[in-house]
Amino acid sequence: MSPAFEASELYDAAFLESLTRLRIIATRVKGGGRPAEQRSRDLGSGFDFRDYRPYTPGDDLRAIDWNLYRRLGRVFVRLYEELEDLPLYVLPDLSRSGFLEDPPRARTGLRASLALSAISLNQHDSVGVFPFSEDLEVLVRPAAGKRRVLTLASQLANIEAGGETNFGASLSRFGALGLREGLVAIVSDFFDPRGIEAVTAALGRLRHRLLLVQLTRSTDRDPDITGDVRLVDCETGGAADVSIGAATLDRYRAAYDRFQDGLVSFARKRGAGLVRLDVDQEVVPQLAAVFESGSYVA
Q1: Which residue among 18, 191, 225, 235 sits deepest, i.e. has the most Cβ atoms within 10 Å of its Cβ?
Q2: For the domain bounded by 7-30+86-217+274-290, which CATH number is listed?
Q3: How do 48-54 and 76-84 pair as beta strands?
């Protein structure tokens, strides 16, 4: 099979350059990584002062606060926040349905995935990419380095469409990889034939922080169809003949609203980020609006 998109459809020099204005900053990063630009829960010999603790043998003598010793007659060392990397794990949804519209929402999803990856790589963070549909694959293993952006872009451009959406199987596979705790950015429309409850249950089992990037378009809630039509499931091939009138559309909108409420409620309870991207608009200006203060707190 050939790649789903030409490389020029996903990125160019101007697109990559526009990403340098955006940053992702985590309020706290789990310790155990390497020095970078994110704040860690660990305390050590970083730059920002946090606290004192009594001196113990083996402590760095340079950390002793001698002014405090002169006042209190006791030896304390200064504790600072360590700066460490924030692993970013990007999970773009490659389900077959995302490649059928015009423009395909999968194109926006891959551009958003590249944008988030480039931002993190520019901050010296490690990035891994794990596309999914009915299952999950390892496209790019987590690694750091600003020069990896073009290589990663090329790999994303060679992606092929997947099959039916299955959040449960895909996220179970991701969780089994045993990766260091980080930020998981899931780029998807979050439509799964098993319903939003199955989606949020799968998300809830992940031990990582979550950033949900929802790919939307206006017709998701307000489809422009009426009359007698045959609806074909673009992933399973199943078909149904229906008559669509005002009452049917009202029931559909109510179901869509329940879907959205379920996703929003999960994000609030979990403390996850939720960003909606209109697939009919350019990616970078929308991300810039989210990060307009210069940082996104995950």
Answers
A1: 235
A2: 3.40.50.410
A3: antiparallel
